[in-house]
Specification:
The protein is mainly β and 197 residues long. It is 9% helix and 49% strand. A hairpin with a 3-residue loop joins strand 5 and strand 6.
């Protein structure tokens, strides 16, 4: 599962993405070549529409995401926040899930990609949640839905609420060390070359 979370983190941090049509802004859609995303009036959880992320012809381990990034609300600083979403799946062969990542100016990230509770197969509308702490130096919050491999995931009614600190967080924290730029001309030795192999 560590490989899964690293793959998701790498895609969200480093990949280019496009605003998907007919998705309403500010939702963004990664990997339009292999996944279709949009809004549908077909059986939303509430209201007139829900969003979907659906595979085209994809190979195993191909991944698509539907997400957005926001600044934290002032009332969230120093609080524990719960993101709730209603989700359903259709023919998910490998895995699907939600994610939320809280980035701070100090280099810490609090994150939950649901890698320990992925969704597979066919599921009807059900509530899923992620609970994370929002440090006072939070700079950005990314959240959305992802799918690996074939299938479709549908989401509706994202919501954020400050909750009691007695509720346990669902994710984990990690410090990202940002060093000085290095090996900018790509002429530095790799570990293998230094060992003489």
């Amino acid at each position: 599962m560590r490989v899964l979370i690293l793959m998701i983190l790498s895609i969200i941090l480093n990949s280019s993405y496009s605003i998907a049509e007919p998705l309403p802004r500010p939702w963004a859609h990664h990997n339009q070549e292999n996944y279709e995303a949009g809004v549908t009036a077909n059986n939303p959880f509430t209201g007139k529409y829900s969003a979907y992320l659906r595979s085209r012809e994809v190979e195993r381990n191909t991944m698509g995401t539907l997400w957005q990034a926001i600044k934290p609300r002032p009332a969230w600083f120093g609080e524990r926040v719960r993101m709730t979403v209603y989700m359903k799946t259709l023919n998910v062969k490998d895995a699907a899930g939600l994610f939320m990542r809280v980035s701070t100016y100090g280099g810490w990230i609090n994150y939950d990609y649901m890698y320990d509770r992925v969704v597979q197969g066919d599921t009807d509308w059900h509530k899923s949640m992620i609970i994370l702490d929002i440090p006072r130096d939070t700079s950005l919050i990314d959240f959305g839905v992802w799918i690996i491999g074939k299938g479709e995931v549908q989401v509706d009614d994202f919501r954020f609420d400050v909750v009691d600190n007695k509720l346990h967080v669902t994710g984990t924290s990690e410090k990202i060390e940002f060093g000085h730029p290095g090996n900018l001309d790509f002429d530095g030795y790799t570990e293998v070359e230094r060992d003489g192999n």
